[in-house]
Write a structure and sequence with these properties.
With 305 residues, this protein is an alpha/beta fold. The chain has a single domain, classed as Rossmann fold (3-Layer(aba) Sandwich), CATH 3.40.50. It has 13 helices and eight strands. The chain has helices at 40-46, 74-88, 101-111, 133-142, 145-152, 156-165, 167-175, 178-190, 201-204, 210-221, 245-251, 269-272, 274-296, and strands at residues 2-6, 12-18, 25-29, 51-55, 94-99, 119-125, 232-237, 258-263. It is globular.
Length: 305
C-alpha cells in the first residue's frame, strides 16, 4: 500500500508499506541516486516476518523535490524519518535500515534528540555516520601505516563527492547521463551485472543531489558527534568501491552497542544480494526484540559491543 505523508516543513513523501501491522516495523531508507525501489527485493523477503516500510526520500521518486539546498540538511532528513515513523508505527519504535546516504540520515536520526526515541535499532549499509568521519580520519592518520592505508582506500570519495557537491556541476553530470554511466561501470566492476533497478536514476533523481551540498562540507568542517544509544548493526559489502569496509567498521564506534558483518557484494548489495541482506536484518531485529522483551520482563540483559 502506498500513500503520502507530510513532513515538518510541509513537503510530501510517498510511503509504501507491506506485511502485518502488528509485527515490528522495519523502515528502509535509500540513498542517492536511488528511490525506494532499490529495497524491493529486501522488503519482499522481510514482509513475511515484519511490517516493512519504504519511502522516496525528498528529491527522489514520487516525493516532493524542494528547490532550496537548506531543505536537505541532516536535521530535516532526520525529521522526515521521524515523520515516517510516526505515521507507520505511532505506538512502537521502528527498526531503521539505511543504505548509502540513507544510512547517513539514519545515523543522524538515531542520535538526534528529536527522533532517537522513535528508533529501536539501526542497520547501516555502505554509509557511515558523517559526523564521525573527521574523527576516523584523524585517528587513522595518527595510527601509522595501517591507518594510512585505510585512508588511502577512500581516495575516490573526495573526487566524486566533491563533484556531486558542486551544485551546477553535479546537476549537469546527472543530466548528461555521466553519473549513470559511472554507476553502470561500478556495477560491472563490483558484480559483473546490473541490478534490476533503473539505469537512469541519477538523471531522474538529480534533485536529491542537494543532500551533498547541504551536508558534506559543513559536516566535515564542523562535525557534531553524538553517541548512538540504540543497538547498531553495520553490514559492510566486501567489494564496495565507494565506502570501504574499513571506514564503515571504524566509524561504528560512535554507537554504544554495535556489531559488524561483512556481506557479499558491492555498494548496491541491497539490490544485488537482497536475500543475505534481509537475513542479516531479520536476525538482528529478532535479537533486539528479544532483548527488549527480556528487559521489560525484568530479566538481565547481555551487553554486546
Amino acid at each position: 500500500m502506498s500513500f503520502p505523508i507530510e513532513t515538518t516543513d510541509g513537503h510530501r513523501l510517498v510511503v509504501t508499506t507491506a506485511g502485518d501491522l502488528a509485527r515490528p516495523t522495519v523502515v528502509l531508507v535509500h540513498g542517492f541516486p536511488d528511490d525506494q525501489t532499490v529495497w524491493n527485493g529486501v522488503a519482499r523477503v522481510l514482509s513475511d516476518r515484519f511490517h516493512t516500510v519504504t519511502f522516496d526520500v525528498r528529491g527522489s521518486g514520487e516525493s516532493d523535490k524542494p528547490r532550496a539546498i537548506s531543505a536537505y540538511r541532516k536535521d530535516q532528513l532526520a525529521a522526515d524519518i521521524g515523520a515516517v515513523a510516526a505515521a507507520v508505527s505511532p505506538d512502537r519504535p521502528v527498526h531503521l535500515v539505511g543504505h548509502d546516504w540513507g544510512a547517513v540520515q539514519a545515523w543522524h536520526a538515531a542520535a538526534a534528540p528529536a527522533t532517537r526515541s522513535a528508533i529501536a535499532s539501526l542497520t547501516s549499509i555502505s554509509g557511515p555516520c558523517l559526523d564521525g568521519v573527521p574523527h576516523w580520519l584523524r585517528s587513522s592518520l595518527a595510527a601509522g601505516p595501517p591507518g594510512w592505508r585505510a585512508v588511502a582506500t577512500m581516495w575516490k570519495s573526495p573526487l566524486y563527492m566533491g563533484a556531486l557537491a558542486t551544485p551546477v556541476l553535479g546537476a549537469l553530470l546527472c543530466r548528461l547521463g555521466l553519473v549513470d554511466a559511472a554507476i553502470g561501470l561500478a556495477h560491472r566492476l563490483e558484480a559483473g551485472v546490473a541490478p534490476n533497478i533503473s539505469p537512469h536514476r541519477a538523471r531522474d533523481n538529480r534533485a536529491g543531489l542537494k543532500i551533498y551540498s547541504a551536508n558534506l562540507v559543513p559536516t566535515l568542517l564542523r562535525p557534531h558527534l553524538r553517541r548512538v544509544g540504540v543497538p547498531v548493526q553495520v553490514l559492510a559489502p566486501r567489494r564496495d568501491i565507494f565506502i570501504t569496509p574499513a571506514a564503515q567498521r571504524d566509524v561504528a564506534h560512535v554507537a554504544d552497542q554495535w556489531q559488524v558483518h561483512d556481506v557479499d557484494g558491492g555498494h548496491w548489495a541491497p539490490a544485488f544480494n537482497p536475500a543475505e541482506i534481509a537475513d542479516r536484518i531479520r536476525a538482528f531485529v529478532d535479537a533486539v526484540e528479544a532483548a527488549t522483551t527480556a528487559t521489560q520482563a525484568g530479566e538481565p540483559r547481555e551487553h554486546s559491543a
